[in-house]
Amino acid sequence: MIVTRFAPSPTGRLHLGHAFSAVLGHSRARESGGKFLLRIEDLDQGRSRPEFVEGVFEDSRWLGIEWAEPVLVQSERTQAYAEALDHLREKGQVYACFCTRADIAQSLTAPHGDSATSYPGTCRALRDDPERRATTPHSWRLDSAKALELAGLPSWTEVDGRCFDAEPSQIGDAILARKDAPAAYHLACVVDDFESGVTMVVRGADLRPSTPIQRLLQRLLELPEPIYLHHPLITHEDGRRLAKRDLAPTLAAMREAGVDGRELAADLLAGKLPLGFAFADE
Ligand code: GLU
């Protein structure tokens, strides 16, 4: 059975790009008699807002999307992430990192468009120091060299059958947890995809750089391998990304302007975009 999910971060209202991801995942599940799930990725508690969580449900309903219960809410899943991290720690696959908050602040949300591979490994060679850990804010990083040695270079398969081997350069010492947050994006994502039995990960092509590291984590945690559908991104016609700072129209604004959500969903699936938008070249 095909199980897909739409996993937005409730840090703003959804826009057309989110709608495309959601309707694509929904239709892939439905046409095969499978299951479509919603997941709320609210690990970044500083930026997540209850009204945006409500917005996810409201916008999804407007698009004609029906989801299966339960809806996983990441801020409620602390225990599951802690267990996964313990497992990796026992295997010697992670190390404590004391680098500054600014370095690690971005790790809670999905890194759209850039890979998280640039950490120079400053704390990798430190001997584990529980006393320092008890008193100093720190994060936990994947020891990618050790992980690759144990699990080998991962690969992934797209729904169209193409198979990709990860490059070692695509896998860095990603942050997996922080002192103030039980898990960062990559770890939470694979633990939750497993918990929900997700078999097909449908998400934008800007998240493709996250796939090698997530596949590696799945191998280390001995989790089953989903297939991937990284769909083209929708941009403004002039190529600008859809982002809050670019004043992308929200689905809520489209609804208020009288757009029919179900028609919009059908158009998106047929590859038809509203005026002013385009699919980005890969
Ligand atoms: N929460 C991520 C986002 O807002 C999506 C993560 C995923 O689909 O793996 O884009």
From TrEMBL:
Species of origin: Sphingomonas telluris
One Pfam family, short name: tRNA-synt_1c
UniProt cross-references to Gene3D superfamilies, sorted A to Z: HUPs
Domain (Glutamyl/glutaminyl-tRNA synthetase class Ib catalytic): residue spans on this chain: 2-250
Keywords noted in UniProt: Aminoacyl-tRNA synthetase, ATP-binding, Ligase, Metal-binding, Nucleotide-binding, Protein biosynthesis, Zinc
EC primary class: ligase
Source species, domain of life: Bacteria
SUPFAM superfamilies according to UniProt: Nucleotidylyl transferase
Lineage: Bacteria, Pseudomonadati, Pseudomonadota, Alphaproteobacteria, Sphingomonadales
EC number(s) per entry: 6.1.1.-
Protein name: tRNA glutamyl-Q(34) synthetase GluQRS
InterPro entries tied to this protein: aa-tRNA-synth_I_CS (IPR001412), Glu/Gln-tRNA-synth (IPR000924), Glu/Gln-tRNA-synth_Ib_cat-dom (IPR020058), GluQ/Sye (IPR049940), Rossmann-like_a/b/a_fold (IPR014729)
GO MF entry, a single one: ligase activity
Similarity-based family: Belongs to the class-I aminoacyl-tRNA synthetase family.
